[in-house]
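Re: [help] complex structure
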Amino acid sequence: MASVSIDTINPKVLKCEYAVCGEIANIAQRLQQELQAKPDSKTFDEIVYCNIGNPQSLGQLPITFFREVLALCDHPIILDKSATQGLFSADAIGRARQILDQIPGRATGAYSHCQGIKGLRDTIAAGIEARDGFPVYPHDIFLTDGVSPAVHMIMQLLISSEKDGILCPIPQYPLYSASIALHGGSLVPYYLDEATGWGLEVSELKKQLEDAKSKGITVRAFVVINPGNPAGQVLSEDNQREIVEFCKQEGLVLLADEVYQENIYVPEKKFHSFKKISRSMGYGEDDVSLVSFQSVSKGYYGECGKRGGFMEVTGFGADLREQMYKVASVNSCSNIAGQILASLVMSPPKVGDESYESYCAERDGILSSLARRAKILEDAFNKLEGVSCNKAEGAMYLFPRIHFPEKAIKAAEAEKTAADAFYCRRLLNATGIVVVPGSGFGQVPGTWHIRCSILPQEEKIPAVVSRLTDFHKSFMDEFRD
Amino acid sequence: MASVSIDTINPKVLKCEYAVCGEIANIAQRLQQELQAKPDSKTFDEIVYCNIGNPQSLGQLPITFFREVLALCDHPIILDKSATQGLFSADAIGRARQILDQIPGRATGAYSHCQGIKGLRDTIAAGIEARDGFPVYPHDIFLTDGVSPAVHMIMQLLISSEKDGILCPIPQYPLYSASIALHGGSLVPYYLDEATGWGLEVSELKKQLEDAKSKGITVRAFVVINPGNPAGQVLSEDNQREIVEFCKQEGLVLLADEVYQENIYVPEKKFHSFKKISRSMGYGEDDVSLVSFQSVSKGYYGECGKRGGFMEVTGFGADLREQMYKVASVNSCSNIAGQILASLVMSPPKVGDESYESYCAERDGILSSLARRAKILEDAFNKLEGVSCNKAEGAMYLFPRIHFPEKAIKAAEAEKTAADAFYCRRLLNATGIVVVPGSGFGQVPGTWHIRCSILPQEEKIPAVVSRLTDFHKSFMDEFRD
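Output below.
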């Protein structure tokens, strides 16, 4: 007797989609296995994963200081041995001691407070305060295993049924659409305007909000991703103020995905947290409910495998906080190494510390290289026939628009697939380059995009550009109307 | 405008309960702060957390070999330095190299395959195979951040509405009741029989299943915790076979919580996985759907803070596996250190390895001490007036029954609380010992229990026993009818 079948499982699971690891990524894995088995079986010699923001998988090195501290906290017994001083920097040893002192019983193998170790939350709070210039309270911080569980926790709290809506940008990072689907809510889209560099218009927000209301949907929250994923835009302060005002007026929880806060590549833009914007407008706890997400996976650190992240939750009443605490406690706590790393990225070495100079060199090397790579890839896309690509002001991706010839769209339809997915599959099979179709992020109907990360190591970028350019030319030659 | 309030949030969140970190734990935290501020303010000098299975928080040391490997994988750059050989054992260095070779690009800071690094799943599969003597396939393994997310993933898959039921033991570890509540399903209880050492009767299962059916509930799965939490029983092989047969006949997914598989303290009982039992009955993929959960948080390792765990999923069709893969991919992957540790606990040092003897000494020291502590506490409970306590054959807890005098029950009612919660609060305030009321796990109505871990360090056990005994005597003196 079959005990579980696709017909009886939760339909919300069936509805959930996550293109970043979808069909194209599966084909890539298969090709990689084929390449390993038969290195000469393809016209390319490696798979280049531009589908996902996973810097260290493409060769980015971790920040030495962070890893030193993690290793010492994993195995504190060596802190007292003299050989350790030859292997680890003095400030890493000092920091590890300081962190261990903040952990009850110095036990990095114990469950912590379910929101995270208090001393580490103190450090994170101080780091946010130094960044923003407004007070931060450690009890507002919830440390989580990367940002995904934090987003799920908030969606679980806010969504009771499909009558609960969440305003999400289109295009959006599909964690949001996936989480909304899994929790049975309704994604209420607002479209970013590609023509104005993926600008955000409050009139569009109001229109979509009214439209949702007319369908009986109560919009509970507003998602903003800044710097933007997948489109790489960085919001202006004016735009941020408009958003805060809109959320306040409409009574929406503002969910601010700020995981790319360190990834800004243009001198004319700066990162401003929504917390800072909101406080600088004079709004406090009683005015706006705001959740800000930060992760150790992005920035210059790119420590995706460590699963560290946190959210700062403000403007939620004590009774709601109690509910969040309870739900967090069901999962005991997030992993301690991720917690430690989250405290480190919010409190890196300072002037005078032994590691300060090497830390700065590593950080600046990564960020300046990312800026160069973003520019080279942007220029390359803009040189392709029928392709236009906005600047990646921040984050880790480009989201070029491709104007496909009718013939290509028809060919895709014949294969029962969207034109952008058709293009991505062709690109992968011809070059080994993995990108994600725009349909996985949402796009204005009738437009087509791809998301391509800027993360291949710099010395590989020319080859990526040349393979991409050659492929695109032959694709257009085949399908040009 | 208040944007989010307790009246508008998801009622499933409100319904969820998790007593392990509930009211008693909150009081304990407050008392601890008071003690820190004023060390002489209480009649006790420390809080003893017997409410949660968190060994290292109470002083249990980590297994050295495991931590050596983790530290080296966190900071692989030191592998090639000669000083490292003075600080780390040779087999830890070898194992770290071997693990790094299994990770694409040796990048412990990259997202892995969403089910976990393939090489580590190979190691885990081999470990289960060596334990059970039946084949294990790496694609059946899903590595997760501890077991909680794995349980949530399965509940999310199986539960569409309150018409979907999950058969759960009573008493049960409240992760299950919490997860069922969060996913909107119905917990269908089956009662363990305290009189026969928390035995499990198939007639009881059938009765509860029929009862659920008559209420329009479709039971989807059967949860078994072996060794048992909170009651510490270890199932007999005969009993396990009956359970497998029952699940097969009734078409239920068998969810086997086997996280205490290393924690067995009586020579007459052995751990047998449900996978092994099922395969030894001749049942394969098409006969029984089975999920087995294992964690790095329990056993002799007790690495709760690392958040490592996995499930082995068998008897699920390819289409269902695809859905599980998709949901796992939304969260990218579990933390790599937890993944590495999960592979280590399933493949510890072997005869001939440099660390083998010290590893065995550490492991056996912990397990034999836990066995002694279990016995001492069991005897102590059984000496208390009106208390009867079954043997802790395994796991990390005792679940003694307390026959409260009517007067105590009335006094509790006057404080609008259950008698067991009343007792726990009194115990905590008088002694600093934190235990969890049986009502948090479920119990036969009219009976009262507490769950008390066996985890305080051995040298502290006499003091725990004496404080507990004194408290109980004065409690009974106050309330004896």
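Residues 64-103 of chain B form a domain with the Helix Hairpins fold (CATH 1.10.287.1970).
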